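Re: uridine-diphosphate-N-acetylglucosamine structure - here you go.
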Amino acid sequence: MSRIRPAAVMILAAGAGTRMKSATPKVLHSIAGRSLVGHALSAAAELDPERIVVVVRHEREQVAEHITQIAPHALLADQDEIPGTGRAVYCGLSALDTTAIAAQVAAGAVGDTSVLETQVEGAIVVTSGDVPLVDAELLGALLDSHADAGAAVTVLTARVEDPTGYGRIVRDAGTDEVVEIVEHKDASDDVREIDEINSGIYIFDAAALRGAVAQLDQDNAQGEMYLPDVIAIARREGGRAHAFVAPDAGAVEGVNDRVQLAQLGRALNDRIVERWMREGVTVVDPATTWIDADVELAPDVTILPGTQLHGATQIASGATVGPDTTLTDVQVGAGATVTRTHGSASVIDEDATVGPFSYLRPGTHLGASGKIGAFVETKNASIGDHSKVPHLSYVGDASIGRYTNIGAATIFVNFDGVTKHRSTIGDHVRVGSDNSLIAPITIGDGAYTGAGAVIRRDVPPGALGRNSSPQQVVEGWVLERRPGTPSASAAHEALRSNDDGLSEGARAERAAATETEGES
Ligand code: UD1
Ligand code: CA
C-alpha cells in the first residue's frame, strides 16, 4: 500500500449515464456483488484517507441513499447546474473545505486568520464512480508516483488500441512532459492519432487544484467545465504535471453501457477467482465460477463447475461446493459438502452434507455432520449436530435436536393460513416417513412417530406417536370398477394363473383383511 495518506478521495458520480438505458442510476448497477460506486468506495477506504467525498447530482436521492447505507462516513457533495467534471470537482472541494472548517470550528480552534489554514491540504485522489477495476493497489501506486515526481497533478493514463472518445495525453516532443489533455471532441486529427488516453483518475495537490478549478471555463465543444484543463492551468502557474501509465490498460476502463458492464464483470470475476486460486483454493472451472468481491474462502476449499458464491459467503477449509450451486450469505464449515444447492442466509457446520437439489432459505442452520438431502427445502430451521433430513421434505420454523432422523417426505406444517408456528423436535428422535407435523408441536427426546402419521398433539420423550388407520383391502375392486383397463387385464391374468406374487403369509393376511372389511 502507498506510503502517502491522502487528505481526501473524491469520487465523481453526478453524471447521467444515459447509455445504460436504465431506471437505475449507472453507479448503482453492480458487478461482483457490489455497486459500481461501492467498488470505488471500497478502494477509497483502503487508502485510509482523512475524508471521502462523493459528488452527486443525477438521481441524487437514490444515489445518496445507497452511499449513506454502504459508506456512512462518506461526505456527499451536490454538484450545481454547471456541467462537467471540472465543476464536479469544484463542488466536491468546496464541500471538503467547508467540512474541514466546520471541524475546526467545532473543535473551538478557529480564529479570524486561520480559515485558509483549515482548508484541505495535501494529496487529493479524484476517481470515478464507474471504474470498478481500479483498486487501492493501483491508486496507491499512483499516489507514490505523484509524491516521487513532486507534481502538482498526476494523471493516470493508459495506452489503448482504440482511443476513440477518450481525452488524449499531449506530451512535449522534447521533454516528454505532459502539456495538456485534449478531449476527443475538441481534438485535431493529429491529436486523435495519440493512443495515450486519460483514465479520468488523478492525484492533485489540494492548493493547486483549488486555484485551478476556480479558473475553468466552458469554452469547448461540449460547453462543460473540463477537469483535464486543470493540467494546463497548473503548469501555467508553475506546477508540474506528471503522468503515470497504467500497467494494465484494461484496469482503468469505465462502464458506459451494459456491454461494458458485463465485460468488466467478467474481468473482475477473473481477477477474484485467480486471487483465490493463488490463496490455495481449487477452482475446477474458472469460466463458470462466479465469486463476489466480499466472499471469503479458506485454503483447500474446492469449487466445482457452475458455482456462484455471493454476498458475504464464507467457506472453511476442506469444504467442497458445487457443481451447480448458488450460495448467498452462507457460511460453510470445514469439510462440509454442498452439492447442487441453492442457499441463502444460512449456516452449514463442519462435515455436514447438503444436496443434491436442496433449497436452503434464510435462517437455516445445519449442525456438524448433519445432512440435508435431496429435494429438501428448509427455512428458519435449526437442525442439530448429526441430525438428518435425507429426502423430499419441508422443514420450516423448526428446531431439531441432535442425532435425530426425519423420515422421507415429512412436512413441517408451519402455516395455518394466517400465522406461522414453530416446531420443536428433541434429540435421537425418529420421525417416520411421510409425516405431517402440525405446528406448534413438540416431540420429546427419543420419541418415534409412525409412518404416514399426522402429528397434531405433542409426543412426550420416548413415546410413539401414530394415527394411521388399519389398511383396507377390497378384493376384486379393479375388476369390478375399472373393467377393460390394462390394470384389470393384468389383475385378471395374475388371478387366473393364481400367481398374484404374494407369499402364503401375505395371502392369509389378505384374507383376514377382507374379513375385517366385511365386518365394518
Ligand atoms: C472523461 C474525461 C476524459 C477521459 C474519460 C475517461 C473530462 C472532460 N473528460 O470523459 O478525458 O478520457 O473521462 O473515462 O473529464 N461527472 C460528474 N459531473 C459531471 C460530469 C461527469 O460528476 O458534470 C462524473 C461522471 O459521473 C463520471 C465521471 O465524472 O463518473 C466522468 O464523466 P464522463 O461523462 O463519463 O466523462 P467522459 O466523457 O467519459
Ligand atoms: Ca466515461
